[in-house]
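Final report, results section. Input specification for complex C-07:
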Amino acid sequence: MRKINSIIAIIAVSMAVSTTAFAQESATATSSSTVVTPISITSSNAGLLFGNIAVKSTGGGGTVILGTDGVRASTAGVTLPATAGTFNEATFTVGGEADYTYAITLPTASFDLTDGGTNTMAVSDAVSAPASTGTLATGSDEISVGATLTVASAQVAGTYTNTTDLIVTVNYN
Amino acid sequence: LNGILSIKITKSLRKEKMMLVLALYFCFSYSLWAQGDLIPIKPLSIVKNIDLNFGNIAVSSAGGTVILAPNGTRTSTGGVTLPAIAGSTTTAKFTVTGENYLTYTILLPTSDLILTETIGASETMTVNAFTSTPNTTGVLTTGTAVILVGASLNVTALQPKGLYTNSNGFEVIVNYN
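Structure output:
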């Protein structure tokens, strides 16, 4: 009887030892992210101004090419009078995270200037400096934009404007 | 003689009973061992190696999300963009150790993790939709396995700039299958 008891005891001990319970295990990781200074762009001058131009009444129109450096050139039937009026490239100030680069998107379609009535001139071929990518070395940068104005033969005299369509878009690269 | 005989019979019966008990025990324990329930296997453990970091993000007047896949690929939706200067982007990495060839289940957080802007502390972003590789179940072929965890970061429109963190972190739970 004692033997049986001791065997039962051994069995009980051995079962107790061999029953292992596993608890679930876990570990944690932190999470983080950096939201950078939003990129911004504001117009920093009066906009793209072609100044005073003259066009022949017959024999075809021409163009005025305003470079990103603010220098004008004319073609064909368009001339640039000595009384030039105010002309300059459009400038924009870009702000954002220092050292980041950004992409510049210019209007790809031409848009019209109107004299307030039915007469129009088209602005096309917008160009910029820097051309397509800029760098926010110190957290800000300047973009200069020029374009080409197409003038018809015998274009009606007047002041032609467009305040909405020269849209320059920037975004972080 | 009857008396002596009866004692002998009794003794042999006791022996038989003993043998029966032992036989039953071995049968029983063998069957349990065969099932694997009572093998003293290595306990499962998990440690974190690398934290989750979504890196640098930019947001416009529209909100969006950044999805960081377990393989480290970042994609953005909506008004969120990912600047070329990406910053440190890392998926969370965990190492699981245990018994060779055993499989384990992986439990990822199901509720949102709130990241708080470290300076102002009033701005928040949420992290959810945790995903892992392997997904749901892993196998400890060589006794060690790596779990990579990604998630989605939800960014609101005009989210203020700053470093957003949650130092309490999120929990990944493993358990033997």
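The two ends of chain B are 63 Å apart (CA to CA). The first helix of chain B runs from residue 2 to 35. This concludes the modelling results for the funded period.
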